[in-house]
Design brief:
This protein is mainly α. It is built from 11 helices and 5 strands. A hairpin with a 5-residue loop joins strand 3 and strand 4. The relative contact order is 0.09.
């Protein structure tokens, strides 16, 4: 705020530093994985209650992200992460933020990330099929081969934009904002202070009070999610393995029913493979085929993917 002090006239535009715009981008990219860790933890504690959140996480997150980003674009002219750092969007041509700019910003902030995640999931599935020797259409194989180059080009464009922005040769710091013809600038200072006395006297609208409370709650949540991301990266959450090992749960009815046989084909295991989220052992081919269709353990119905499989080596293995 000192940079916009009394000696600077209101007509002078001060471009945000590269640190500020990158911090906003980093915070925006933190929301998805940080919230997913919370959802994964809840699903681990109560799989029957929160298991569906894991299965439909991308769709639920898009809905949540759409509500939040739509609110901030409508009221503050920027995404939650940008407003958190005191930034807002404006056109590089006429220094305004029109309804058209808001709608396209919503598409780039909400719809495009969801579509890219779905596409990346499918590409990873096609890649696994190629590595496992399965038949994959030629156009899908081409997409799998081209994707690393597409990502490299995108990262190179981002780096070029960062350098140009830092050197003062561009008002825009990212390729997505360049496509939208928008740039980030400092948000105009707005004071929406209120007290409970103002509320009782009718001087403050309830909508203003709720809007301010929502803003503070989301900002606090953003800080909390950043802390989770830091804890995962820096504090090494893997150290939880040093805690005392809990006792094994009691065997259920299915444990005796499927003793030494695959619960799917009901035959002796062929390449025994365990599902880590449930502990049940299957034939490798049986469980992989099932997870590709259902994405959950056949016995317990816990959410599971191919990444949750563990190869077991029995005494009679060669």
């Amino acid at each position: 705020m000192a940079a916009r002090g009394a000696h600077i006239t209101p007509t002078v535009e001060i471009k945000p530093s590269l640190f500020e715009v990158l911090a906003a981008d980093s915070l925006n990219n933190t929301f998805y994985p940080a919230i997913k860790r919370v959802v994964d933890f809840l699903a681990t504690v109560k799989p029957t209650v929160f298991g569906g959140l894991v299965r439909y996480y991308d769709e639920l997150y898009m809905l949540f992200n759409g509500l939040v980003q739509g609110y901030y674009l409508q009221r503050h002219g920027g995404s939650l992460a940008e407003v958190f750092y005191g930034l807002t969007r404006q056109s590089v041509r006429n220094k305004t933020f029109t309804r058209r700019d808001r709608n396209w910003s919503f598409v780039v902030l909400v719809v495009v990330p969801y579509a890219l995640r779905i596409l990346e999931t499918r590409i990873n599935r096609w890649k696994d099929d190629c590595e496992n020797g399965k038949t994959v259409a030629a156009e899908k194989q081409l997409v799998v081969r081209l994707m690393p180059y597409v990502k490299a080009v995108h990262e190179s464009l981002k780096l070029v934009h960062y350098v140009m922005y830092l050197a003062g040769a561009s008002e825009v710091h990212s390729p997505s904002l360049r496509v939208l013809r928008l740039a980030l600038t400092y948000q105009a200072e707005e004071e929406e202070s209120w007290s409970f006395a103002d509320v009782f006297q009718g001087k403050t609208r309830v909508a203003v009070m709720l809007s301010t409370a929502l803003l503070r709650w989301l900002e606090l949540s953003a800080f909390f999610l950043q802390f989770i991301e830091w804890w995962q990266t820096e504090a090494n959450i893997g150290d939880l393995s040093k805690l005392p090992t809990p006792e094994a749960p009691d065997l259920d009815v299915n444990a005796a029913k499927y003793s030494n046989v695959c619960p799917i084909c009901l035959q002796k295991y062929i390449i025994p493979t365990a599902v880590s989220v449930s502990g049940y052992v299957y034939c490798y081919r049986c469980i992989v085929t099932h997870l590709q269709k259902e994405s959950r353990c056949p016995v317990t119905k816990y959410p599971a993917t191919i990444n949750d499989l563990i190869r077991l080596y029995m005494d009679d293995d060669d």
